[in-house]
C-alpha cells in the first residue's frame, strides 16, 4: 500500500476558531477526517502530523525519504520564510503537493511569495478545506 505523509504547519491546530473570516469554521479534525475518507476509498495509508515547530517539520521530512511515497503539506506561515523546509523537501526527493486554505496571492504582500512552490510538483490554494482534498487526490494520481 502506498503511504502519504500529511503535514500541517503552525497554527493550523486552531482551525475552526482562528480568523474564521479567512479560514472558515472547519476544524483540523474535520479536514483530517475528510482526508481519511479519501485515503480509504483510494486504498492509500496516511500519516497526519501538525506541528508549530520548523525544526520538527524539517526532521519529519528528512526521515520520510524512504518511508513515504508522497508528501501533502500546508506549511502555513513557514511557506513564506522557511528555506530549511524548502531544502528538506528538495533533499528528500519526495513528490510534494503544497496546499493552502486561502488564496495567498489575494492577501497581504508578505504572503505573495512561497519558498515551497518551486520544490512542489504543484500547489492548490484558495478552496478552503477542499484545497487539501483536491491536493490529496492529485498526489494519489501521481504516486
Ligand atoms: C495558509 C496561508 C499562510 O499565509 C498562513 O500563514 C497560514 C495558512 C493557508 O492555508 O491559507 O497559516 O497556509
Side by side, the strands of the main sheet go 2-1-3-4-5
Shape verdict: globular
| Terminal-residue CA separation | 11 Å
The computed structural class is alpha/beta
Got a strand count? 5
Going by CATH, the architecture would be 3-Layer(aba) Sandwich
How much β-strand is present in the residues? 15-25%
* Portion in helices: 25-40%
Mean of residue pLDDT values = 97
The CATH topology is Rossmann fold
State the helix count.
5
For the sheet with most strands, the description reads: 5 strands, parallel
The CATH superfamily is known as: Dehydroquinase, class II
CATH class: Alpha Beta
Q: Give me the Rg, rounded.
A: 14 Å
The SSE order reads EHHEHEHEEH
Write the layout of secondary structure elements.
Elements: E1 3-8, H1 20-23, H2 28-42, E2 45-50, H3 54-64, E3 70-74, H4 83-92, E4 95-100, E5 122-125, H5 129-142
Parallel strand pairs: 1-2, 1-3, 3-4, 4-5
Helix pairs in contact: 2-5, 3-4
The structure holds 1,3,4-trihydroxy-5-OXO-cyclohexanecarboxylic acid (DQA).
The site of 1,3,4-trihydroxy-5-OXO-cyclohexanecarboxylic acid has 10 residues, from loops.
